[in-house]
Design a protein that fits this description.
Largest sheet: 6 strands, mixed
CATH superfamily of the largest domain: P-loop containing nucleotide triphosphate hydrolases
CATH architecture of the largest domain: 3-Layer(aba) Sandwich
Strand order of the largest sheet: 7-8-9-3-10-11
CATH topology of the largest domain: Rossmann fold
Shape: globular
Helix content: 25-40%
């Protein structure tokens, strides 16, 4: 178990968090840039000491500011995967991997064997003699991951490890990294600003904003019950602001800012953020009287269409901006194009409320 408490100020950032990651599990620290995510990793690794805080890994205390305990970074044995890989440009791939083994493997041949084993594991053994400048972004990422794992670390720290990769390479690298994290028997903390990446790689997701833990849970829990408009927006939901009041049949009626009313099965009164996911919104032509079981229907005008394979993301202008994700066949059947009018419909059960 990796446990951290930290309270410190860095410039305008006031960090105050308490986090933990069990052995063999990955905690994804997700949120916008400048939220304090990388600062948390640096505190765990011993690269930054907070004004007040503790870091414990298993039975060992790495940091306790009250007791004056502060183990040096090399004594903590953290596998740290930096955002840009941070490979030594003058060393070959295998020498980069072997660099961290000098303290525990004295023989060069033994270090080389261990390095080659890891490069083989990540499918880049053929590039063992190549220097970082000759590698692609995906290849450098694999070498950097092999280097982080080489000394058999007590914890893995990953700072946006996929951000420098192109979309094609990133998808494959995400699958590989997910496999590595499942196999690892040590706690891991991963920093990302991408909720989809956090959902794929993290067993638990901690949403961080302005140095504070906003909400924590599985990705499914955060998506199903966002604690705030910020979390709802971060998970990819459409967020509509309004004022909620009691309605008929146990529903809440939300009077939207700018006009229009929608319903939710969740009970809440006062200023709220109503969230619904784009794939839960259907589009219909104006004037249709039968909306099926959908309680909510908002007149809108199409502003944009983005084709994503067999799906289309439709940007809409209603009383507030909307995004619907529908099939390409549905978009064609409706004759959607910028300027076309449509009605956005979605169920009260799909409409989540959080305080605003």
């Amino acid at each position: 178990m990796l446990e951290l408490t930290a309270s410190t100020r860095l410039g305008e950032l006031a960090l105050d968090v308490a986090l933990s990651a069990p052995a063999g599990r990955c905690l994804a620290l997700a949120g916008p840039s400048g939220a304090g995510k990388t600062t948390i990793l640096r505190i765990v690794a011993g690269l930054l000491e907070p004004e007040r805080g503790t870091v414990r890994c298993g039975e060992t205390t790495w940091l306790d500011t009250e007791r004056g305990v502060a183990l040096s970074p090399e004594r903590r044995r953290c596998g740290y995967l930096f955002q840009d890989g941070a490979l030594f440009p003058h060393l070959s791939a295998w020498r980069n991997v072997a660099y961290g083994l000098r303290g525990e493997m004295r023989g060069r041949a033994e270090r080389r064997r261990r390095a080659h084993e890891l490069l083989e594991r990540f499918g880049v053994a053929r590039l063992a003699e190549a220097r970082p400048g000759a590698l692609s972004g995906g290849e450098r990422q694999r070498v950097a991951l092999a280097r982080a794992l080489a000394p058999r670390p007590r914890t893995l720290l990953l700072d946006e490890p996929l951000s420098s990769l192109d979309a094609r390479t990133r998808a494959a690298a995400t699958r590989e990294l997910a496999g590595v994290l499942r196999e690892a028997e040590v706690p891991a903390m991963l920093v990302t600003h991408d909720f989809a990446e956090a959902a794929t790689l993290g067993d638990t997701v901690s949403v961080i904003a302005d140095g504070r833990l906003v909400q924590e849970g599985t990705a499914a829990e955060l998506a199903a019950r966002p604690a705030s408009a910020f979390v709802a927006d971060f998970t990819g939901a459409v967020v509509l602001n309004g004022v909620s009041r009691g309605g008929e049949g146990g529903l809440s009626e939300v009077d939207l800012d700018g006009g229009g009313t929608i319903a939710s099965v969740e009970r809440m009164t006062g200023p709220v953020a109503a969230s619904v996911y784009p794939w839960e919104i259907e589009l219909e032509p104006p004037g249709r009287s039968d909306h099926g079981s959908a309680r909510n229907h908002l007149p809108a005008v199409v502003e944009s269409l983005t084709v994503l394979g067999s799906r289309v993301r439709v940007g809409l202008r209603a009383s507030q901006p909307l995004v619907a994700e529908i099939t390409d066949a549905s978009a064609q059947a409706l004759g959607l194009a910028p300027g076309v009018r449509a009605v956005a419909t979605f169920k009260a059960a799909a409409t989540r409320l959080s305080p605003r």
